[in-house]
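Summary for the steering committee. The consortium agreed at its last meeting that each partner would contribute one worked example illustrating the joint modelling workflow. Our contribution is presented below. We chose a case with several input lines so that the handling of multiple components could be demonstrated. No manual editing was applied between input and output; the record is shown as generated.
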Amino acid sequence: MLKLALSIIVRDLRLSMRHGSATTMVMGFFVMVVIMFPFAIGPEQKILARISVGVIWVAALLSCLLSLDRMFQTDYEDGSLDQFILSPVPLELVVMAKCIAHWLTTSLPLIIITPILGIMMNLPESGFLPLILTMLLGTPALSFIGGIGASVTVTLRRGGILLSLLILPLYIPVLIFGSLAVKAVIGGYPAMEHLMLLSGFSLFSAAIAPWAAAAAIRAGLE
Amino acid sequence: MHKFANPARFMRLSKIFLPWFMGLTILLFASGLYYAFFLAPEDYQMGNTYRIIYIHVPAAYMAQFGYGIIAVASAVGFIWKHPLADQAARATAPLGAGFTALALLTGSLWGKPMWGTYWIWDARLTSMLILFFIYLGYMAVWETIEDQVKAAKIAAIVALVGIINVVIIKFSVDWWNTLHQPATLMRLDGPTIGGDMLTALLLMIGAFNMFFITTLIWRIQSLILRRRVRALRMQLGGGQG
Amino acid sequence: MTKIGLKAGARKKRRLYFLLTSIAVLGLAALLVLSALEDSIRLFYDPTEIVEKNIGPGQNFRLGGLVEEESFESREVAGILINHFVVTDGNESVAVTYEGLLPDLFREGQGVVAEGSMNEDGVFVASEVLAKHDETYMPKEVVDSLKKRGEWQRKAAETHPQDKAL
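What follows is the complete predicted structure of the assembly.
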């Protein structure tokens, strides 16, 4: 079973490597959103330091959201999705694999360039490691919950706005615990509870999303 | 549930019950408002401003009650494929969204004298706001997907995924230790409100509940009728209507 | 995709395995959340913690406690209301200043949560003051925090009859 999931992940990774533009564009979007803030708020270092964690988290969330509608779209268009439904691999497992592939191709690159944005946003030094850690723990939830949204809107022609409306409210816990944890560490407070809640939420979405998304795909493609 | 699952039987039964429900709603509102504004004493600390809870608390309850109905109806509709359950879930959404908006509005009006600000980002207020957006998203699913059978299924999935948020609302006060008071009525050691104040609050909750149910039945009726009209048009116009 | 020749039974079996995995993951998530909730997240710090931690000026945080009796003083300077009061937990106390209107429920002896930072003189400059209102008119968290220190007397709660409280 692991082998099957792995083969789907590898397939998606190869696809995104060949058309590498999607990942690069999401990274570009991520950077652009973050650097809009100094222009809007002003270049004062103190204020930037205060908002840096929140801004980077929100930008990561939006970048993730932007890439979601492609998650099942191409497979739906070329008919692979129908094949997945008919194949002996349970659709839930396929969805799980696709969510993991989405995380690897979208969130991971964002996390890798986060330190650069941290420097630009004057993030306090003690905040870098916690920020990376919370993003590693929290972004899987973005991909999994996003998978539900992507599956709900896969057959719709203009599903993008509906997708954001459905998904953004469910992203709020990630945002709360993610930024609280980093701020707690910067302020010298314990952050363990936040990190535990964050990982709990990620695991919870990993357990729920494949089932909900698979059901939505089956309902949509009927 | 099975008994009412047939739309025709639902129409017949609801026609009998609806006038009674309406009467009961009016009665409850009249007595509830009388209690709330004339019999219930002033609060020793908040004076008369506290009376907004007679709108705020019932509205907040109805906001969550509505989502509960959507979740149960969605589960029933999804598992047993009852068309009536799907329609009930659909009909509940705008009502629930309306009560959520009312709870948010009255809460913010109450917040000014209570907390000194119209809005604070406290857990319960915030999750109520999120609930409002989840209602909107749920309604948008119904609006966006044209095929009604497909829409019902997908909306049910969305509703069931969103139910975790309602759970968070109920327990957020204890989870996050915020400025909002813990629930007054739902406490293990009994309500901390007494006398005419409690009577007034319970009457108002009853009134809101009956209003909700009456309006819901009404909306389900109109949704069923709309479906019938569409079916008849399809027959007459060869699917053009 | 691969091995299309397999029977539908294989899919069912795999689905069951996957379901069991999901349930295990769900259990793990519940375990994490429950153990995180055991030590609940504090939204504010009481005066003792502030003195112990020796929080420096400029650091933004929330201060919670009771307004000390007969410590409240309000002056109008050039049309702006400047309030002085002392927040205490019975053990330590912190002086607070706040410019602007205080909420209705602000009283001496009542619970209050203020957001702001310490200035150079060790006075807490609040940017926002919120009166804490709960079912017994004593902020539960403040009471808990005081109880832990053994400083809390029932007095404050008893002056507010429970049956009238909302």
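The helical segments of chain B are 7-39, 53-80, 83-115, 123-144, 148-176, 195-237. Confidence is low (pLDDT under 50) at residues 169-190 of chain B.
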